[in-house]
Amino acid sequence: MNKIHVLLTLSCITFASCQVSKPVKDATSDYVVDPLKKASGAVTSTVSAGAIGTAVGTKNLAQKSAIATKLPANVYSREVTGENLRKRMSLVEKSGWYYMGSRREYHYVAREFVDREIFRVKKDEFKIESPFILTPKRSLWKQLSTKKILHLDQ
Question: Full-prediction pTM beyond 0.85?
Fold first, then answer.
């Protein structure tokens, strides 16, 4: 048993989740690579993706709570004009655009791609068929078509 193997074994005992017990050969070269260092790249990527997912989930939850508790709209949304919203929808066609409902003189529209961004637009600037009361429940939102908007002059 060499020094590296002993250190790896001790590291695995110290960190109970470690499954590595001996050095491995890197597929791209002829030298032996420390498996913990090799695995750390994958772990870092996983942790980074997990952190981003957690941050996005936390933001979405905070937005839902703000809507449900009727906090001021500027806490969870950004006001835009009807023209600005239509342009955004035509430029970012791949995102999911959802009508979330209406409260007072505003319609609320969410753009979901990696995270969620909520826009509020005055009712008279952006027409919605069959409006309903603003809701934090995504299952009740109505998906908006971006295809109808693409013919507008830019």
Answer: no
